[in-house]
Amino acid sequence: MPDTFPPSSGSPASGTRPRRNLLADPARFAREVLEPVRAIVGERGLITDRDAMQPMMVAWRDNWEGRVPLVVMPASTEEMAAVVALCARTSTPVVPQGGNTGLTGASQPHGDDTEILVSTRRMNRIRAIDLDNDTITVDAGVVLQTIQETAREHGRLFPLSLGAEGSCQVGGNLSTNAGGVQALRYGTARALVAGLEVVLPDGQVWNGLRGLRKDNAGYDLKQLFIGAEGTLGIITAATLKLLPLPTASATAFLATPSPVTAVAWLRRVKSLLGENITTMELMERRCVDIAMRHNAAIRDPLVERHDWYLMVEIADQGEQAALEARLLAAVEAGLENGELVDGTIAASAEQALGIRRIREGAPEGQRLEGASYKHDVSVPVSQVPRFIAEANTALAARFPGIRSFAFGHLGDGNIHYNPIQAEGGDKALWQSFLPEVNRIVHDIVARLGGSITAEHGIGRLRIEEVPRYKSAVEMEMMRRLKQCFDPQNLMNPGKLLREAG
User: Fold this and answer.
1) Looking at 244, 270, 289, which one is the last position of a domain?
2) pLDDT digits (tens, 9 = 90+) for 14-56
3) Could you tell me the CATH number of the domain that includes residue 259?
4) Same domain, 216 and 253
5) 255 within some domain
6) Whole domain around residue 179: which residue ranges?
7) For the FAD-binding PCMH-type domain, which residue ranges apply (predicted)?
8) How far is the C-alpha of 453 from the C-alpha of 210, rounded, in Å?
9) What CA–CA distance (Å, rounded) separates 499 from 485?
10) Residues ≥6 apart with Cβ < 8 Å to 32
11) Quick check: is 332 in a domain?
12) What backbone phi and psi angles, to 5 degrees, belong to 431?
């Protein structure tokens, strides 16, 4: 029997896998992993130089950093399957990575050379477009913006849209069930998938690339891998749903007295505009101020200051003037009923872009304001005002001077509640408050029937908190799924679910 790295010493149900530095025996690692992998992917598919792999080891936010002895970049599903099968035989843990734009550390390896990183960056083919079926089939490593542009070239829309779309890869988008600014109308990534191709933890390939709208033949297996953060297998390709490309769109920046009036106007505008609403973003005044403070290109669209704002986008087939008239009528109704107090509708694409810059500039500027506490939470839309009010009150009482900073997707109840340290305070001191701030905020979310992670996922960031907010039954169901697919706990270990032991 060939000498292999030892399998987990824990029972299969435990998921325990003692961490072993793969370079503890360099000759053995080279013989059993490095050279066989080289034979599969070739020199172009390997990175062993520490400096060259460093950009893939570091997250762009929150200081997640890892260390691995090897980065593997398969160029095809066949190569990916062969690499994963080899890792299964040698009990070598694998961390899948796409564009490395995640926000919870899910695609960062641990810092102890106990894993190898497998990147999909070379798997970047557009495989097929079926305009009669309104689907596009792509490799997992295709950049989201490339899919959007390809769809547009064919007169179609792929509506998943988020800040990192110029660099994130669709495999990562699906593995984290990304949301984005148009989820109100089109849903999260989960809603846009017709089929998947997945390399399972033992190296088998499941080809579920069926572009069907209806398939009631048993479990909907693709949904198991969407949002699983690479812990059940590696998505290698997807068949995605395309939609008609809107011919008209309109963007508005509106002032509203409070989150309560914002929700009231949202209810009204749904009845007036229906599914034409693609985006409904809420933000408080501090978000606008900080965006302008740190980006000279951002201007306040309104003359007077207000406490709360809405960024609204609508789209439809038809004439531009007719769509703008419908939005104007909805705004006027809001002004008459006190749900809105001011506003402007963009008169050009350039003005619309200027409005979007405010929303994009808020989180970018926040990073320069000192310690902040980032929460990607969701509650029922009806509970958004109560959540913000209760969280602000509780944190102000416990941490005098803390600055509220709330923005996000009002239309689906996903609020990025990111309070910032007191102005001029000691950053290190305020950073030490993070666990208590998280507990206060997330306890309120749970009490209101919400989720502590709406669209960013669990990764490493929330892994210790999840058991507090999920029932024992839910946690056991998740563990059983993990054990069923990955009994050795080799696929992205220590993410989404805590390792036992």
Assistant:
1) 244
2) 344 567 899 999 999 999 999 999 999 999 999 999 999 999 9
3) 3.30.70.2190
4) no
5) yes
6) 126-244
7) 64-245
8) 30
9) 15
10) 2, 3, 4, 5, 90
11) yes
12) -65, -30
User: Would residue 90 count as lying in a domain?
Assistant: no
- Please state, for a pLDDT cut of 90, what percent of the chain lies above it: 93
Residue 190: burial class (beta carbons within 10 Å; 0-12, 13-18, 19+): middle
Spatial contact of 74 and 139, defined as CB atoms under 8 Å apart: no
Coil, strand or helix at 407: strand
Predicted confidence band of residue 432 (pLDDT cuts 50, 70, 90): very high
**Residue 339, Cβ neighbours under 10 Å: how many?**
24
337-362 pLDDT, tens digit per residue, is 999 999 999 999 999 999 999 999 99
Three-class SS of 307-352:
CEEEEEEEEECCCHHHHHHHHHHHHHHHHHCCCCCEEEECCCHHHH
**Pair 403, 433 in one domain:** yes
Same domain as 342, residue 271? yes
**Span 94-121, average pLDDT:** 96
- Collect all residues with Cβ–Cβ distance below 8 Å to 237 and sequence separation of at least 6: 77, 123, 127, 137, 138, 139, 140, 196, 197, 209
Backbone angles phi, psi at 126, to 5 degrees: -80, 110
- For helices 434-447 and 384-398, what crossing angle results, to 10°? 150
Q: Give the pair of three-digit tokens for residue 299.
A: 């201007």
Residue 18's nearest CA partner among 111, 117, 89, 114 is 114
% of the chain residues with pLDDT over 70: 96
Looking up residue 232, the CATH number of its domain turns out to be 3.30.465.10
pLDDT of residue 78: 98
Alpha-carbon distance of 251 to 63, in angstroms, equals 35
Asked whether residue 113 is domain-assigned, the answer is: no
- What per-residue confidence (pLDDT) applies to 15? 43
Q: Which residues contact 348 (CB under 8 A, 6 or more apart)?
A: none
Q: What is the chain's length? A: 501
Between the two ends of the chain, the Cα-to-Cα distance in Å is: 29
- Give the model's pLDDT for residue 14: 35
Strand-pair partners of 251: 313
Q: What CATH number does the domain containing 393 carry?
A: 3.30.70.2740
- Pair (408, 339) in one structural domain: no
In a shared domain, residues 234 and 291 = no
At 61 the pLDDT is: 74
